[in-house]
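Hi everyone, sorry if this is the wrong subforum. Our group has a chain we'd like a structural model of before ordering constructs, and none of us has done structure prediction before. Sequence below.
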Amino acid sequence: MSILPKSIIRVIDEFAKLPGIGPKTASRLVFYLLTQPATDVENFSAALRELRRSLVTCKKCYSISEHEMCDICEDQRRDATTIMIVEEPLDTVALEKTGYTGLYHVLGGVISPIDGIGPDNLRIKELIDRLKDPTSVIAECILATDPSLEGEATALYISTLINQASIKGDIPSSVNITRIARGLPVGGDLEYADEVTLRRALEGRAKAA
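Answer:
Right subforum, don't worry. Here is the predicted structure as tokens:
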């Protein structure tokens, strides 16, 4: 039997459901909130309530948006000839920091048979439809899925579909398919890198400046 009030236990349990948050961290977060002014806690609660109410899926790239079309898809200054294919909306946040100026397409995950996720569970058909659109000016598809087994399998599947559609004439043959380079991270040591990472670093080598 717990000595804590049920209301506190309930909030701790909810916090503990978050990724990377264990019971101890959840408890610290709850007791921290108890020390804060009531207005701050109310604002926090209101922000959580509005999180789902105010957000929708962009009808073009399928990222998270507050409007029918997200700000990136609405921005006429973006390079409409390039589309970056990512797994989740959070990936676009990381890529935006690189200075990338093209558009995105969010798959909503990766192919993972063990988890019961197949191609039909992702937004792959929607991607092909974007490329088939007669008004499309897309010249390059950048496959930016994670370098995991599932990410690689998903990238290969999409690449194959695009190539097949190109052969049929459904997609212009001028559309290039590229894959983000994988290799050694900045500050990494060769002796600690696995053979797959090293091999890909060699495959993606570029001319020295």
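For your construct planning: The domain at 6-53 is CATH 1.10.8.420 (Helicase, Ruva Protein; domain 3). The two ends are 67 Å apart (CA to CA).
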